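Usage

Read records sequentially. Each one opens with the input sequence:
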Amino acid sequence: MSSLYNNIQHCFPHFFPTKVICMTRLDTVESRSKLKPRNEPYWQRVANGCYLGFRKLTPTSVGSWVAMYWDSETKKKTKHSVGKFSELTPSQRFDAARQASDNWFKHLGRGGSPEFLTVRTACEKWITHKLNIKGQIAAKEAEDRFKRWVYSDKIAKVVLNKLTRNHIDVWRAVMTNTVVVINPHAEVQSTRPRSDSTVNRDMSELRAALNFAYDNNWVTDDSAWRQALKPIQNAEQRRRVYLDKSQRRSLIKNSDPFFAEFLTGLSLIPCRVGALADLTVGQFDSRLGVLAIGKDKQGQDRKLQLPPNSAKFLEDICIKKSKEALIFTRADGKAWSRHTWKKLFSSSAKAANLPDKCSLYALRHSGITDLVTNGLDLLTTALITGTSVAMIERHYGHLRQELASTALAKLDLNLTSI
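and closes with the structure output:
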């Protein structure tokens, strides 16, 4: 009968927009064992428009299972491989395949994508999206976090619709409990626990990738990570290592010439360390004294009108360099990175007698602190430093309150002395 239908369809295709699906019983081992090997799956209808297929390529193969959804309105068939289930006994395979296909049908019913993505694929798609909306620096930072914590972990291969709270809990525990090696090149290494703020940043990147997948219907349930990836409360404490100008000058004086240039740039230009390292000569207009930062971590393009001394500093460095060349480089002409500046900063900070907990970020923090305490409003501070007003308010808003308190004190009429 099926061959008759196929012959009629071949002769009169306009009457038969789709090939006739012949039904076969697949729920018993005996019925499947009698099937002849072929490329096209044998099908059993499990619900209206929903079919479970079994493909048997050789007489001795365990076979593989396929789910198919037939949309009667669009006349379109969508297929999805659900697996072989060779680890199960033959009598258990149909039920397992039926359960897997039912999950897929439910996923489609909620508006989900026909194809399931793995956690790794979701992260890769998020990186592409972040590159488009926030630029190369932000995308590279996300990629680095995924390489360290996701791609090397078993969770990377988990299909999104099979992702569970336990997967996330185990991943989070491993990531959180991994210690930081303070001096990796020393003979005797010391370690410290990861800070809550660092853990939050690593979790937030994975959470963003999974939420992006959820928003795009690549997965229709976010319960696996909704609670499990919630940030640690009160982890973002104020940056307390402030370096005054004499300490900053001492740090620069105790550094080699090329690193001193880099530190000076970070002290004069309110951008992130990575953004400073990526600046090219072409981004600086020496005639106007304008520096185009480009897309920073926040994905915003911004231009800074530099004061004369800062502009002259950059102009002297950029002389005889091509527009494509980096403004700040190491002695060998290569770019700065966290792996090359970390050790140099440690030795320079020690020579300058700076606080033990001081990091390269202290220069940016100190610069922002000076801007705020010198009276610059928080919105303008946020714009020129390439961050959000909310972040400036959270970490530096107390400085404005102190300025306000000082201003209010000047209203005192000294009535007690009358």
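Summary fields computed downstream for this record:
- The beta strands are 42-47, 50-55, 64-71, 76-83, 180-181, 191-192, 284-285, 290-292, 303-305.
- Residues 227 and 246 are 46 Å apart (CA to CA).
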